[in-house]
Amino acid sequence: MSAHIAHHAPVRGERQRPWLxxxxxxxxxxxxxxxxxxxxxxxxxxxxLLNDPRLTEPALWGEYWTQGYHDGVDNLYRPLTSMTxxxxxxxxxxxxxxxxxxxxxxxxxxxxxxxxxxxxRLSDARVALLAGLLFAAHPIHVEVVAMIVGRxxxxxxxxxxGGMLLMLRRPIGIGRVFAITGCFLLALLxxxxxxxxxxxxxxxxxxLWINARRAxxxxxxxxxxxRSLPWLVLLLCWILAAYVYLREHVLPLKFWWDRTFLxxxxxxxxxxxxxxxxxxxxxxxxxxxxxxxxxxxxSIDYGGSVIGWSVRSDDPYLYLGAGAVVAWFIATIIAWRLxxxxxxxxxxxxxxxxxxxxxxxxLIGTNFGERLMYIPSIxxxxxxxxxxxxxxxxxxxxxxxxxxxxxxxxxxxxAARWTDRLALYEYSxxxxxxxxxxxxxxxxxLQSRGRLEEAEQSAARAREVEPQYWSIWVxxxxxxxxxxxxxxxxxxxxxxxELSPQPGIAAMREDxxxxxxxxxxx
Length: 522
Fold this sequence. Notes:
It is built from 22 helices and no strands. By secondary structure, the chain is an all-alpha fold.
């Protein structure tokens, strides 16, 4: 095993300042995302932090290890992520959201540094600098960094890249085996994509083997490594098996769940059948490809009618997704034939990490979300940086400067919107006017600010967008009751009952006479 996938002559200054690419990437990340430190709790932060009673009750912290990440039907299990929230609460409470955001910014900076360092050890300082800066500046990462619960993505990424960096240190003794295993546990217990850790290390080894053959330097293991590496394989396999057994047979957190409990406005693919179910992943891949290459339209939600559940022959995302698949296969074949270990590793890792969130085999929680591309984008950017450096130096400087400038401007402008909930929701609604979830977020925020007339108008527009969604009728009824329009509230609840008969809705409707009487008494 070689310490480097690629053999190269050191770039001037690389030996004197090997830390420079990582440091510059981290500094750029902090500079771009400093604006988010003053943000409040936003979007999923409210449900996972503010509305979780376990967070403020230390006696309940043990439940993070025996129950789900939240009360969603997707059975997420992220105990280490939750414990970071609990630790911070014990230090400064919930009155200082800036402290949570500061940790997120620093975590992103650490991931950027790790990406740069991985690229440096695989190639050279030039590739490292470009990869680190591109990862720091890419706008698709704003949701992860600006939303506190995006921390799961960053912790998982740190564990994954950390394990790869440790693999590149020779020789690999028993101490390093335990360190790599610790990285696996970090990735596994912070986000579900951590299950891919052993597979990614396998792809990493393939990349090493390919380049060793190309260089004519076969991989030779030291006696220490012959004793240690089997233990690494066993530990990774045992831990993964134990994790699966724990989820399936001990904890109430099975990987498969009843899809009828999923909300179609969050994951509309539950309605997809037949050919649509087979082709919709291509549409999603097309959308993700566009966000990776040209992220000009960004939003906190893409569910419901934004993506839908049927494939149209005139949908450009369908052809973009199909083109991405073809391009991946061609690139992988070329990289293999050229014995380009870095490219083969990056392409395989990109496919694996995307596959777990791309709704290709199963429905996993959120149908589509910018934050889901945080880890896959590591390997996409590594691949782009590696190949871009094959161009003439002047061309690289010009292209990289333009891309970094545009990406940085887009990142800062979008991140700044996350400092105000209503401003973000309204902006997202402009980008995706068919998203009923964003309509409801705007309505809720207007309600919380006492702007009931505006909330009422927004609710009317939302009912026009998705008249068949029961929840918007319930939300409309709550606004009407606050305004004292009880007849309208009763009509809204009646319509909600027609769409989705639920005891809770019936109880709200039966409670209207009492609410009316209480209001008249005042």
